[in-house]
Recover the amino acids of this structure.
């Protein structure tokens, strides 16, 4: 399929290959084979499923197409994608990362990377001066997450990538919250873009997957080498589910984003709520910067209750949302950040960052917003 004039909604549906070249089927088949015949003893395009699989290639081509990369890579989970992207670093290297980021990422950067000889400085990534002050002769990369999870700190992507280029550093950005539909980091200068495709790209809470892409052919070669050597690849059936989920991303995300805006505004006026974090709110501190680099507010928001005593009753009484440490599904998902998504972060660190036991995160689904509000208001 040629892509020179197609817009995002069309690319999401047709992706890189919109029909099976062998049969004309409207979906790429699930190639469940673990190995492939070498005709005459010579390997073809596919030789062993860890190295390549047509079902997996479909979603790898799709994320490269959607983000503007030269090649995509699909992994078994979002954390496998993060770990594999960070394999671009080696022992002795130093990484700069946000002090406010997903708990799983914090755990990997603070406990696993040090065992590999890679150190990380966690700083306020929204402050260029703090980033520059953290750079050492060993620094090789900057890891970004914007909006941050769960406090929605907004990083100036253009400014950070310009600084990184000036200092010869790689930039890696987790684009899970925004998806390529709302934010395209490669166009803003980022070197490597990462997604937990378990979330919005899959969209139905029925698979786990991670995706990575880059616009740099040399980085793509290094990522491919490690993907094949390490082998944490996405299975064929999950690849099929992910390709199907991507097709409806625009419809799902636009519907969820509208409802998220509605709920954020209503929560802001609720007497039990102390504060709401959502880029779509007119008084959101990072609103102007966010919309200078993204085309929408997204479908995730955080809010804090005034009283800790209200948290347990809310979690017990709410009926529609799934209470879980995830996001991006067609169903609304409510997360108690302290005990779920950010449980891996020590209590004193969470408190220092402003992640308190009264903080909750909502990933808004595609239910009727009035039903969601009635349920939420009753539980509050």
């Amino acid at each position: 399929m040629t892509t020179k004039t197609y817009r995002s909604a069309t690319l999401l549906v047709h992706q890189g290959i919109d029909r099976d070249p062998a049969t004309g089927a409207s979906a790429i088949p699930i190639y469940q084979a673990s190995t492939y015949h070498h005709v005459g003893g010579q390997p073809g395009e596919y030789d062993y499923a860890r190295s390549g699989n047509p079902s997996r290639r479909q979603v790898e081509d799709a994320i490269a197409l959607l983000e503007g990369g030269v090649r995509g890579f699909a992994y078994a989970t979002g954390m496998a994608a993060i770990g594999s992207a960070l394999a671009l670093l080696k022992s002795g290297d130093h990484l700069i990362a946000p002090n406010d980021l997903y708990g799983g990422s914090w755990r990997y950067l603070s406990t696993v990377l040090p065992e590999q000889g890679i150190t990380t400085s966690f700083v306020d990534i929204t402050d260029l001066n703090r980033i520059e002050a953290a750079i050492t002769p060993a620094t090789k990369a900057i890891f970004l997450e914007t909006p941050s999870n769960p406090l929605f700190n907004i990083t100036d992507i253009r400014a950070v990538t310009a600084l990184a280029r000036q200092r010869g550093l790689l930039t890696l950005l987790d684009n899970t919250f925004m998806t390529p539909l709302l934010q395209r980091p490669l166009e803003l200068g980022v070197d490597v873009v990462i997604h937990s495709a378990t979330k919005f790209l899959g969209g139905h809470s029925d698979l786990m997957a991670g995706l990575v892409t880059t616009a740099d052919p040399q980085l793509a070669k290094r990522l491919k080498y490690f993907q094949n050597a390490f082998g944490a690849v996405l299975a064929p059936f999950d690849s099929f589910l992910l390709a199907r989920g991507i097709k409806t991303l625009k419809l799902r995300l636009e519907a969820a984003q509208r409802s998220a805006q509605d709920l954020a505004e209503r929560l802001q006026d609720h007497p039990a709520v102390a504060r709401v974090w959502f880029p779509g709110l007119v008084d959101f501190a990072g609103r102007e910067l966010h919309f200078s680099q993204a085309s929408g507010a997204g479908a995730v928001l955080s809010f804090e209750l005034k009283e800790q005593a209200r948290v347990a009753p809310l979690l017990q009484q709410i009926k529609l949302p799934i209470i879980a440490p995830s996001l991006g599904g067609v169903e609304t998902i409510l997360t108690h950040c302290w005990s779920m998504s950010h449980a891996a972060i020590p209590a004193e660190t969470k408190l220092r960052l402003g992640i308190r036991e009264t903080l909750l995160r909502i990933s808004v689904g595609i239910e009727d917003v009035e039903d969601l509000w009635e349920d939420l208001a009753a539980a509050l």
The two ends are 50 Å apart (CA to CA). The chain has a mean pLDDT of 96. Residues 249-379 form a domain with the Aspartate Aminotransferase, domain 1 fold (CATH 3.90.1150.10). The first strand starts at residue 71 and ends at 75.
